[in-house]
Amino acid sequence: MSGLEEASAIIGVVAFVVDIAGKTWNFLSKMKSAPTEAFDIAQDLYLVSSICVKISLILDEKDEMFQFAYKTLQKLCLEIDNLNLVGQKELEKIISKDTEGDTRIEKNSKSTRTSVTKRYIWAWNDEQRKYLLGRVESAKSCFLMLLKQNEFKYFKE
Questions:
Q1: Which of 9, 18, 51, 80 is the most exposed place for a label (fewest CB within 10 A)?
Q2: Residue ranges for the chain with pLDDT beneath 70
């Protein structure tokens, strides 16, 4: 596989993962609480970040558009960490208070205890979800722009 083919393949994977991430966030943003499977979105976004590291070895790191896309994803992953901390605190409040049947989780359920060790995306409020969805869409746009470059001027031979 040539450097150009490898770069194209990696960019394609990034675009696919970011697209899946965007669709999942769109789904999450319309829900009051997300299903357990939604925790996987954080791992997907970290996968995007790790792929970006590989891209940086192939693409011209001095290119402005690449730098913007790369930095956007770095910030996105950092924001996920920060929002997870907020979500964890919200989740702990819900678990610790007495339930009256109006909360999203059962105080002593096995799934709740398991969820505490996972990502807390579904515990975020709507404003946080919409903000992060916007950041995902921004990152997605950057990589789709890279994919549309017919002249491959962003690739090293």
A1: 9
A2: 1-157
